[in-house]
Structure formats: C-alpha cells, structure tokens
Design a protein that fits this description.
alpha+beta, two-stranded antiparallel ribbon, 4 strands
Length: 120
C-alpha cells in the first residue's frame, strides 16, 4: 500500500477546533477516522491499543498542546505513569527534590552553632 498523507496548519476559531476534536472522538469510538483536505483524504482505522504522546507547554506569551497518536497491528503498549487532563488546576505536592534544594540553600543549625563558637 502506498503512503497517503493529509496535513493542515492554520488558525481556527475555538468552536471549529472543538468540532474537529469531537469528530475525532466519534471516529475513534466507531473505529474509522477520515481526514480530508481538498481532494485528498486518508482513512485511518485505530487499533485496540493506541500509543499516545502529549506535550503541553506554557510560556509567557504563548501556550501549546501537541497530541500524537500512533497504532499498529502487533504493537504492545508499555506501562506509563498516569496522565490526567482536566479543566481544574491541579494541586501539586512539593517534591523531595524541591525540599532538598531549599534545605541546601539554608545553613543547617550545626553550621550556625560552629560559627557562633568561632565568633566567641
């Protein structure tokens, strides 16, 4: 089978983007997704197991969300950490790495006591 490809890049109203995403979800549920641009189109049949890669970037003046899905007939899915996508801002607990970095910035009491001994 020869390679067929359809691509699109542009700026759309949010409602149009949501309509495309809803059609994508419907296609995933039914087992066939058709993507058409002009005269060209691609017919995709997602498998039971789908590899997904999501990248979200927040910058000062720009935000980006990239979603990539791939599938094949005999691919196995590796176990990954759970992903959550929601409309609520997450509550993030301070990590041990952050706590350790803060501890490194502040002198320990032991060092402070030694400094006091030398000062007397």
């Amino acid at each position: 089978m020869s390679k067929k490809e359809v691509s699109f890049k542009g700026r759309l109203e949010q409602q149009q983007v949501m309509a495309y995403l809803n059609e994508l979800v419907t296609g995933l549920k039914t087992g066939t997704v058709y993507v058409q641009n002009g005269d060209g189109y691609v017919s995709l049949s997602p498998g039971r197991l789908i590899n997904i890669e999501i990248e979200a970037v927040e910058k000062k003046d720009k935000e980006k969300l990239v979603i990539e899905m791939t599938w094949g007939r005999d691919e196995e899915v590796a176990e990954v950490s759970p992903l959550k996508i929601s409309t609520s801002e997450p509550v993030v607990e301070e990590s041990e790495t952050t706590d350790q970095a803060e501890e490194d910035e502040q002198p320990s009491e032991e060092v402070t006591e030694q400094e006091r001994s030398h000062a007397e």
